[in-house]
Amino acid sequence: MYLNTNNIEENKKIGIIYKNSEKHFFLTTIKEELMYGRLYQLKKNKRKYDDEKYEMELINIEKEAKQVLEVVGLRQEYIDKSPFELSEGEKKLLSFAIILMIKPDILIIEDPFCSLDKFNRLRMENLINELKIKGIKIIIEKNVDVDKGKSQKQTFLSKINMKVKLITVVFFSIFVIISKSSINDYYARNIIYIFIIIIFFLFLKIEKMDIKTLIKQFNPIFITSIFVLVFNLFIVRTGNLLYEFKKMFNLINTEFLLNIKIYDEPILNSIELFFQIMVITIISITLVKTSSPIQIMDGITSFVNIKYMNKKIKRISFIVAISLQFIPILLEEVYRIHRIQKERGINKLNIMTISSIIIPIFQNVYYHSKKIYDGMLARHFIIR
């Protein structure tokens, strides 16, 4: 959804209601969906309450959850139901109730009347009018998928055969490993590393990737390189001496000499290690950014000759390969849950909530992948 936020005032709490109501749901019951954001804020500020007041707040939040159901026109008996059991019209009303629980000042609604029958359309019109009377600013947005054209457009790198991409990654990874023994000139090696990094950065720039975001992904490499440098400075004692520090200290009537020597070799090695990691990382990022997980998995499995594999290894490999096809779906689910959490005032990624949903899903994926494998085997789609 594309939103023009130029006319929205600052410091206002904004609620967004999507065209697809199910984008708002990720918990088991309607009660949990309604109370989730408020409960998180309450637990976050638990220190401010004594036990009695905390319990009262819990009761008040539950009362508000029931009241907001009545406000949108849903029965209180629904509170223990799954949100996915509701009709399309009721799901739309529930999405309103979920966002109203965070008490927004501004409500942005994407195609509120889409796919509603006359009865539910009338209910929706009445609800929007009631919210306007209560002082909530309503902004109705038409669905404009600005990324649709981009996502369908194939870029230059995305057209390259997956085998070629994988061979490129393997080739440069091997080159980085053996370059020290095959190219004696230190500066020549590092010039080659820098040249490779620049070339792949240009590729990503041509592909219209966000370079600033990519650079942020190299922060762990900088931190690792600094750690290795500091460690090597005090451990490695080879190369040309650059600096020496000597000082006598008297501690508890005991004299001892502090002698620090800094050589050039640990510094040069750390710089080279940094460039080596950069080469492998930038090539891997290029592969990942221009290919889907399914394409990568298909490319890897295309190199494996399954005829000569052990039966157990073959079976496990196929099951894992099928399971990995679902990674994009699992990642989408993680992003969806995180987006819902942010909408309810939770900016921090709640790992416990996501894990409790994703882990069982992946377990089910793996279990069903075994069934798919057995079904393919039974129908002779897989060579024994």
Explain this structure to me?
The protein is mainly alpha-helical and 384 residues long. Helices cover 61% and strands 9% of the residues. The chain has 15 helices and five strands. It has a three-stranded parallel β-sheet, covered by helices on one side. It is extended and about 80 Å long. The model is unreliable at 1-8, 144-152 and 379-384 (pLDDT under 50).
Task: Write out key terms for the chains shown.
extended, 3-stranded parallel sheet, disordered C terminus, disordered N terminus, 384 residues, mainly alpha
The chain-level structural class is mainly alpha
Can you list the strand order of the major beta sheet? 1-2-3
Summed up, the helix count is: 15
As residue ranges, the low-confidence spans are 1-8, 144-152, 379-384
Helix content: 55-70%
Number of β-strand runs:
5
Give the integer mean of the pLDDT values.
76
The major pleated sheet works out as:
3 strands, parallel
**N- to C-terminal distance:** 48 Å
Shape: extended
User: What is the chain-wise order of helices and strands?
Assistant: EHHHEHEHHHHHHEEHHHHH
As a percent range, the share of strand residues is 5-15%
Gyration radius over CA? 29 Å
